[in-house]
Amino acid sequence: MKKVLTTLANIVLVLFFLSTFGWLIKSITQGEKLLGETASDALLSFVSFFDLFEETVEEVQKLPETFVPTPADFKPVNKLEEDLFALVSYSNKRKQRRVEVKNLKNDSVLISWDIKNEQQEHDRIMDPLLLPNKTLVYSFNGVTGLFALDSAGKKLWHQDTIVHHHAMNLDSAGNIWACSYTEENHWYIIYQGLYQSGDTELRFIDNSVSRLDPKTGEVTFHKSISEILRDNNLSNLIVKSASIDDPLHLNDVQPALKTTAYYKEGDLFLSLRNISTILHYRPSSNEILEVIEGMFYSQHDVDFLDDHTIYFFNNNSHTFRPGMPTNWPIGKKIKNLGAFYSNIIAYDLASKEFRYLEDSSFAANEIFTLTEGMSEVLDNGTVFVEEQNSGLLWVLKEGEVIYKNVLPSQHEGHHHLLNWTRVIKDFN
Fold first, then answer.
1. Of 102, 134, 176, 391, which is least packed with CB atoms within 10 Å of its CB?
2. Could you give the C-alpha distances from 331 to 318, 323, 335, 336, 338, in angstroms and in order?
3. Left, alpha or beta for 290 (phi > 0: left; psi -120 to 50: alpha)?
């Protein structure tokens, strides 16, 4: 009995000590110096040891895939004579992302948002969208629904009946158009497509296109891409794909902002990477008006150049990273076809002809990204490029490099992976 009482007394003493210790720490962190300034600071340093230890451990661990090694001989170029505002996102901490409007001319930051990352450390905020009232719309790509934050970081809405992936853009009425997946039983990236090839049933991940109300996040239009193809007797396009699991891979939805002789306001240009195809689609009638195919492969980021011309970033690459030959010996007489780089292609909707933009600059600077990639023709005739895989930003004009840089990170020898940098033309 005495032993039991002694044990209980010790437990009470330990609990009392821990309670007193916790109360002291709480008081000190609130600014009170109950033990005097020196002793209070020493106690606070002692309990902060584990935070410092955790930060040190994180630092020496392998960095997440959101960081890219910076070449030792990398030399930035900045000949910008005008402000160039860009909406960027990156990993400022393992469990936090930052989105900011940055002036590339002088590296100043005009507005920023810090967003908690509750996903895996490599999940990215990709292609966030800034509305005219400085509302930020974002998602963790292919993982979460869409969120809207005001300029002070207050959450305005969350749309979780769809999951956004890849691109978002505004139409002429201010609605948000987004590449999306359809939710089913709390799952999003799932096999919702089916077709038969001979006696084999093939299942695939379907993509959708969605329109949202920017004030509430309400989904006001939602359509499956495979349904759009089927409704327009174009299901055969799926057989072109290098991927059975993900045959379409929608990566951009670009609304037409006005009516011309070649498209109507509200039409969409849909970029499907895995079949190297752009669709001119009219949501109001569920019509595919043109299937654009040709001298481009694994393309991204469709935009308008003029009233009859679109342009897009042509990765000019395989859908997936190619492997080295393994099954047969390598021949002695090699027929070398040269180097392939990415480029920007313009397509004339009137003449049906293709042409390159700044092609010599891409070749001279060996600009290439196997996946992703962005481009923007600016008002002064320069061309903005995101070489995504290597994390490089470029501004090119008539063969000259006006700007070349990376987003420096908190980790020496590494810079931030780019996440679809968006040029902001009318920021004020």
1. 134
2. 23, 17, 10, 12, 17
3. beta
Give the global pTM. 0.85
Per-residue pLDDT at 406: 98
pLDDT at 369 over 80: yes
- Model pLDDT for residues 86-118, shown as the tens digit of each residue: 999 999 988 999 999 999 999 999 999 999 999
Q: Residue 315 burial (CB < 10 Å; 0-12/13-18/19+)? A: buried
Q: Where in the chain is the domain with CATH 2.120.10?
A: 68-82+180-319+341-424
CA distance 71 to 330: 31
Q: Tell me the residue ranges of DSSP E strands in 117-207.
A: 129-130, 136-138, 146-149, 155-159, 162-170, 176-182, 191-197, 200-205
* pLDDT of 30: 53
Residues 6+ apart with CB under 8 A from 266: 171, 172, 255, 256, 282, 283, 284
Q: Are strands 176-182 and 208-212 parallel, antiparallel or unpaired?
A: antiparallel
Q: Which of 87, 151, 70 is nearest to 125 (CA)?
A: 87
Residue 417 has pLDDT above 70, yes or no: yes
- Computed from CA positions of residues 64, 370, 288, 345, in that sequence, does the dihedral angle turn out positive or negative? positive
Q: Name residue 269's beta-bridge partners.
A: 254, 280
DSSP-assigned beta bridge partners for residue 354:
347
Query: Which stretches within 30-72 are classed as H helix?
Result: 37-47, 49-60
**Cβ neighbours for 154, distance < 8 A, ≥ 6 positions apart:** none
With tokens 């999951």, the residue in question is: 163
Least confident among 130-144, 185-199, 349-363: 185-199
Q: How far is Cα 11 from Cα 20, in angstroms, rounded to an integer?
A: 14
- Residue identified by tokens 């752009």 is 278
d(CA 342, CA 313): 8
Tens digits of residue pLDDT in 163-214:
999 999 999 999 999 999 988 877 778 888 899 999 999 999 999 999 999 9
CA torsion 32-38-39-45 (nearest 10°) is: 90
Residue tagged 């044990």 (tokens): 7
pLDDT of 49? 47
pLDDT in tens, 27-46: 555 555 555 665 555 545 55
